[in-house]
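Comment on both lines for my students:
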Amino acid sequence: MNRRSAIGTLVLGMLLACAGCARHSSQSKPASTLTEAQRDSAIARSTLPGARTVGRALELSGRSAARSSALDTLPH
């Protein structure tokens, strides 16, 4: 019985080693197809705790980007 359990353990170890070396799919799909801005916008519209804060942060970020863009342009 002792020899049998040793052989079983050896076989199990070899199977686990082979499974660990298996090839993974090279064409795995991303977890999400949304951009970060789309994901943040969806969170801001949700009823999750803190969603209003995310919405306000996005609004301020948009204002800041618009202000920066206006300052970066040269007048004619």
Remarks:
- The chain has a mean pLDDT of 81.
- The chain has three helices and no strands.
- Helices lie at 2-20, 36-45, 51-72.
- Residues 41 and 49 are 14 Å apart (CA to CA).
